[in-house]
Amino acid sequence: MTYARYKMCIFGDGGVGKTTLVNRYISGKYSEDFKMTIGVDFYTKNIEIEGIRVNLQIWDFAGEHQFKNLLPNYVIGATGGIFMYDISRFYSLIHLEDWLNVLNKAPDHREHQMPILLVGGKSDLALEGNRTVDKEYALKYGRKYNIFDFFECSSKTGENVDLIFT
Predict the structure, then answer these.
(1) Domain boundaries, the chain
(2) What is the CATH class of 2-165?
(3) Non-local CB neighbours of 54 within 8 Å, separated by 6+ positions
(4) What is the pLDDT of residues 84-99, one digit of tens each?
(5) Which residues of the chain fall short of a pLDDT of 50?
(6) pTM for the full predicted model
């Protein structure tokens, strides 16, 4: 059997649901009982994809401004990233450019530009009429920054959680 290790970073504004998404993926359970990430949290999950055993390392970055400058050092060696925003907070999508500017400060960024997935979290809120970011707008906005792909998800319902990490 073939083995692989992938490092993935998840970043975005505070409160968009990054930690909840990662924990839903790791445990399969939803909980609103998470505390704010301080700096960075690290998770691993072993999965099998098309006959390859994969050790997935997920680095969950705090979204508060004072922690943004940690991202360039921790992203070294990452094979992919997730930029997450909250579909009910328009400005959390607009901050993509700010986050990419921070990411571009990574020492190995010029040699290795990782693919980034755009993820709109809390899609269950759309059913309650709380959407402020239209899917088409998010998709076009992401393309402007060469985003690899786009999904919406709900950690609460589990919608697209596994698909995002796969």
Answers:
(1) 2-165
(2) alpha beta
(3) 3, 4, 5, 6, 46, 47, 48
(4) 999 999 999 999 999 8
(5) 111
(6) 0.90
**Ramachandran quadrant class, 51 (left: phi over 0; alpha: psi -120 to 50; beta: rest):** left
Q: Which residues pair with 54 in a beta bridge?
A: 4, 47
Residue 127 main-chain phi, psi, to 5 deg: -65, -25
Residue tagged 């400005």 (tokens): 91
Pairing outcome for strands 52-61 and 40-49 = antiparallel
Phi, psi at residue 31, to the nearest 5°? -150, 140
Query: What was the pLDDT predicted at 101?
Result: 87
Under 8 Å between Cβ of 21 and 12? no
CB atoms within 10 A of CB 149: 12
Per-residue pLDDT at 155 = 95
